[in-house]
Specification:
The complex is a heterodimer of chains A (about 240) and B (about 270). Chain A is built from nine helices and no strands. Chain A is about 85% helix and about 0% strand. Chain A has about 240 residues and is mainly alpha-helical. In chain A, helix 1 crosses helix 4 and helix 1 packs antiparallel against helix 7. The radius of gyration of chain A is 22 Å and the shape is flat. Chain A has a single domain, classed as MetI-like fold. Chain B has about 270 residues and is of the alpha/beta class. Helix content of chain B is about 40%, strand content about 25%. In chain B, helix 7 links the parallel strand 9 and strand 10. The two termini of chain B are about 30 Å apart. The chains are: A mainly alpha (about 240), B alpha/beta (about 270). Chains A and B meet through helix 5, helix 6 and helix 9 of A and strand 8 and helix 4 of B. The complex binds adenosine-5'-triphosphate (ATP) and magnesium ion (MG).
């Protein structure tokens, strides 16, 4: 047991100093690209003319329906040969993660736009709002609150998805843990990796829940909650 | 000529002289269900017209077509002489471009049964949003006008409130102020008190009575409040099955309708 702890305490700092940056960069880059891709494809599917909506749908199905690891290999190994674009390890990882999770995110965006009440859309027409004003000022703030739980989920999955980036030669947490296995044993190596992923995932989902509360607060949902509590209290009294 | 015909004739002349709204051969189908078939009618500028009729007779559809919330299957709608969504060109029916439609649509405002206030904004922000971003007004100008309108609807001190902090009747009065802030020439009111608790209906109707008395805005009203309809309307149109079966002044319509189905309908609702 003491051996485990001493191994663990050597492995943990090593994983953090050697592997954390590749994992965090892949995650942050992937998350930003995921958001961009999700918004573009999701809005195109919901708002675009038929041809654009169909095109976006096809892209979504391709990236959702094929393996992340195969996509990663395509971008890293096939693209340089096909198009003479060599993104290198980190950018290949970011692009593959962003596209793959962005395709799932597009469904979150489309579903949330769909869930904004019809009356809200119709009122923007009755007030003659141009498309951009309508989306930016009225629809998006409401849809955003609805899509945050979905994005929270995806972001946590993305944290775990970064474990694949070792395949394109990035020395991330998982890669380093696999190295440490040889010197410090499987328990310590993978125990430390597990802990690091868990902590990152907790940070990420806490951040998203905070954003969610803030978005709901701005929609006045807190007022509703407060008044239902009051109503319940009155009903009980 | 009976007095009845005279008043109807003069009403028609008046609306022909300055047609605020013209429906010409309007057809509306949902799938293969025809709701409006070759509907024709005029509303004069500044006229207050109430549409009555049984459920499903097409009243809401008419307002939604005017607000361009539904696609016009056939025929033409003119607002202030301008074609709204389709025009005749060399005998052909041509759909107008979205920009053109938007220009004409700006003359029209609508208040919905469900208020539809924007939940991401305060009362004041709800009202100034479109004047700033659609009409290009300055924030100060928009706020000044919004305050005036809030005073008018009896909510002068609630500008900073959030919509969920207001009663249904208050929310609906904000929605009326929001529509008026766009300075529409025509306002469409589709059962604006139907979602309200009975004790809140009066305040909303009073705001509308006041609006009718103090402005020359054209009003197209769908309501089940027959006393209100009688008080503010210049003319009442009775619909059944997507057709106008009676067109009369309110005192005639409500006391001495000529159509059997109108009599039946009014017996049921009065
Ligand atoms: N989106 C739609 N799709 C299919 N049918 C529709 C749609 N909207 C309305 N209809 C049909 O059109 C007809 C007219 O509806 P409309 O809402 O205009 O009636 P209304 O006179 O306003 O009735 P109510 O007094 O109940 O509000 C009805 O038969 C209705 O079922
Ligand atoms: Mg209706």
């Amino acid at each position: 047991m003491t051996e485990f702890f001493s191994d663990f305490s050597t492995v943990l700092p090593r994983l953090i100093s050697e592997g954390l940056s590749a994992t965090v960069y892949s995650f942050l880059g992937g998350a930003v690209l995921m958001l961009i891709v999700a918004v573009l494809l999701g809005v195109a599917m919901h708002q675009g003319p038929k041809w654009l909506a169909t095109l976006a749908r096809i892209v979504v199905e391709i990236f959702r329906g094929t393996s992340l690891i195969v996509q990663l290999f395509w971008i890293f190994y096939v693209f340089p040969q096909l198009f003479a674009v060599d993104l290198g390890s980190l950018w290949s990882a970011i692009v593959a993660l962003g596209l793959n999770y962005g395709a799932y995110g597009a469904e979150v965006v489309r579903g949330s736009l769909n869930a904004v009440p019809k009356g809200q859309w119709e009122t923007t027409t009755a007030l003659s709002m141009p498309w951009l004003t309508k989306m930016r000022r009225i629809i998006w703030p409401q849809a955003w609150a609805l899509m945050l739980p979905g994005f929270n989920n995806l972001a946590v999955m993305l944290v775990k998805g970064t474990a694949a980036v070792g395949l394109v030669l990035l020395n991330d947490i998982t890669f380093e843990a696999n190295q440490a296995r040889i010197t410090n044993g499987v328990w310590a190596a993978f125990g430390a990796a597990l802990l690091i992923y868990l902590v990152i995932a907790l940070i990420v989902s806490t951040l998203f829940r905070w954003m969610e509360r803030r978005a709901q607060h701005r929609l006045g949902l807190w007022v509703k909650a407060a008044s239902t509590t009051k109503a319940t209290a009155e009903a009980v009294a | 000529m009976s007095t009845d015909e005279t008043t109807q004739a003069s009403a028609a002349q008046q609306s022909e002289a300055s047609p605020g709204i013209i429906f010409e051969g309007v057809v509306k189908r949902f799938g293969d269900h025809t709701v409006l078939n070759e509907l024709n009618f005029h509303v004069g500028k500044g006229e207050r017209v109430t549409l009555i009729g049984p459920s499903g007779s097409g009243k809401t559809t008419i307002l939604r077509l005017l607000m361009t919330l539904e696609h016009l299957t056939g025929g033409y709608i003119y607002v202030d002489g301008e074609p709204l969504t389709h025009k005749k060109e060399n005998g052909k029916r041509v759909e107008l471009r979205a920009k053109q439609v938007a220009q004409t649509r700006k003359r029209i405002g609508m208040v919905f049964q469900q208020f539809n206030l924007f939940p991401n904004m305060s009362v004041m922000e709800n009202i100034i949003e479109a004047p700033i971003h659609v009409l290009g007004k300055s924030k100060e100008e928009a706020r000044g006008r919004a305050q005036q309108l809030l005073d008018q609807v009896g909510l002068g001190d609630r500008g900073d409130a959030h919509p969920t902090q207001l009663s249904g009747g208050q929310q609906q009065r904000v929605a009326i102020a929001r529509a008026l802030a766009m300075d529409p020439e025509i306002i469409l009111l589709d059962e604006v008190t139907s979602a309200l608790d009975p004790e809140l209906v009066g305040d909303v109707l009073n705001v509308l009575r006041d609006l009718a008395a103090t402005t020359d805005i054209t009003m197209l009203i769908v309501t089940h409040e027959m006393q209100f309809a009688q008080d503010v309307s210049d003319r009442v149109l009775m619909f059944d099955g997507g057709k106008i079966i009676e067109d009369a002044k309110p005192d005639v319509m409500f006391s001495n309708p000529s159509n059997e189905r109108t009599k039946e309908f009014l017996r049921a609702v009065l």
